[in-house]
Design goal:
By secondary structure, the protein is of the alpha/beta class. The chain has 2 domains: about 210 residues, FAD/NAD(P)-binding domain; about 120 residues, FAD/NAD(P)-binding domain (3-Layer(bba) Sandwich), CATH 3.50.50.60. The strands form 6 sheets. Strands 1, 2, 5, 6, 7, 8, 19 and 22 form an 8-stranded mixed sheet that branches. A 5-stranded parallel sheet has the order 10-17-11-12-13, covered by helices on one side. Strand 6 and strand 7 form a beta hairpin. The model has no long low-confidence stretch (mean pLDDT about 90). The structure holds flavin-adenine dinucleotide. Flavin-adenine dinucleotide (FAD) binds next to helix 1, strand 2, helix 3 and helix 5.
Length: about 350
């Protein structure tokens, strides 16, 4: 099997942009992605409108996935889908061996970890309830906005995801009720302000105590909630319940114990702003990486990816330039520029 310059573990925004940027720097790449599709956790919000990716004023999650995948495939990286990396280790000859759950082995000179949210498990309400609810009207994400049209929607949570969905569904749902156990929201200020000024009904210092089923027992009909300041209980009838109270992250691969990463909260890989980890030759990018000043957004993932690839290029070829040439001057685009121009000209 061919030894690649880089194995990228994870095919989300960070991994895809790293594959593209590595191509700009004449480096060979293999992406290994545990899911059957590329795009990472953006698949979690295909119908959400994304406004904060540079150069794209607004796009649905699904549209952004298409664009990211197209760009990520520009230099034809090897893509291995449906294989979960379980471990990797250094090999004597230098470089690394990556092993997947089904026993495949892949070799590369360097590794980029782009595993994002790891095993992406939404946290459940700490209540006992019929598992059937999650097949009917208890959701942990919004895959189809139209499902919530003209419905009374109750959202539980106080972070970005809960506030984002509340804002997104304002124009669609009949009513939005947002329930949060604390006083202040841990979401971006503008989104919180937008929500506060909207028709959504907000309940702070409020805990969900019980999910009350309908007569057939397979749907949530109402919730019992407790005002923590007054200790009073209230019932709230609903059509749909969305629970966004966080995610259970876990580092979902094991590495050779000789490779000592610094982990934060047992999960994030502490590194530098240049995406270096404590292990030489292994870089981390995107949501999994932590450093002072880290931007845990798609825009931040792109910057990490470019930094990691530039570090790798210099480590493999110390005479190489520190950064890639800007794309308009990069020789790797000469033919592609011609093709694109002639297509535009024909149109
Ligand atoms: C509801 C929601 C809304 C958001 N809205 C925005 C927004 O508007 N703007 C914005 O900039 N950001 C937004 N974000 C954050 C954004 O999605 C992340 O910052 C971004 O996806 C991080 O990209 P990533 O590649 O680091 O990780 P991910 O997108 O999590 O991708 C990681 C990939 O690695 C794969 N993987 C994991 N472990 C393994 C393994 N062991 N082997 C192989 N593959 C593996 C996963 O399957 C996944 O495909 C939002 C997030 C959520 C949850």
């Amino acid at each position: 099997m061919k030894v690649k310059d880089i194995t990228i573990i994870g095919g989300g925004p960070a991994g895809l942009y790293a594959a593209f940027y590595a191509g700009m720097r004449d480096l060979s790449v293999r992406i290994i992605e545990t899911k059957k599709t590329l795009g990472g956790k953006v698949h979690f919000y295909p119908e959400k409108m994304i406004w904060d990716v540079g150069g794209i004023p607004a796009a649905l999650g699904a549209e952004l996935i298409d664009q990211m995948v197209e760009q990520g495939m520009t230099f034809n990286p090897e893509v291995i889908l449906g294989q979960k990396v379980t471990t990797f280790t250094q090999v004597e000859q230098g470089g690394f061996k990556v092993i997947t759950a089904d026993g495949h082995q892949y070799f590369s000179k360097r590794i980029i970890i782009a595993t994002g949210g790891g095993l992406f498990n939404p946290k459940r309400l700490p209540l006992t309830y019929n598992a059937r609810f999650e097949e009917t009207n208890l959701h942990h994400s919004v895959y189809r906005r139209s499902h919530f049209r003209n419905k009374k929607v109750v959202i539980v949570g106080g972070g970005n995801t809960a506030v984002d969905w509340a804002n997104e569904l304002l124009g669609i749902a009949k009513e939005i009720h947002l329930i949060h156990r604390n006083e202040s929201f841990k979401a971006y200020e503008a989104a919180t302000r937008q929500l506060a000024a909207s028709r959504a009904k907000i309940y702070t210092h409020t805990l969900v105590k019980e999910l009350i089923p309908n007569i057939t027992g397979d749907r949530v009909r109402a919730i019992k909630m407790r005002k923590s300041k007054s200790n009073q209980d209230e019932h709230l009838e609903l059509d749909e319940l969305i629970v966004n109270i966080g995610f259970d992250n876990e580092l979902n691969f094991h590495h050779d114990p000789k490779l000592r990463f610094n982990l934060k909260e047992d999960y994030y890989i502490e590194g530098t702003a240049k995406a270096e980890t404590a292990v030489e030759g292994v870089y981390a990018i995107g949501d999994i990486l932590d450093f002072d000043g880290k931007v845990r957004l798609i825009a931040g993932a792109y910057s990490d990816a470019a930094n990691a690839v530039n570090q790798i290029k210099r480590s493999l070829d110390p005479k190489a330039a520190e950064k890639a040439q800007v794309s308009s001057h990069n020789h790797r685009f000469n033919q592609k520029n011609e093709e694109k121009r002639s297509r535009l000209f024909e149109e």
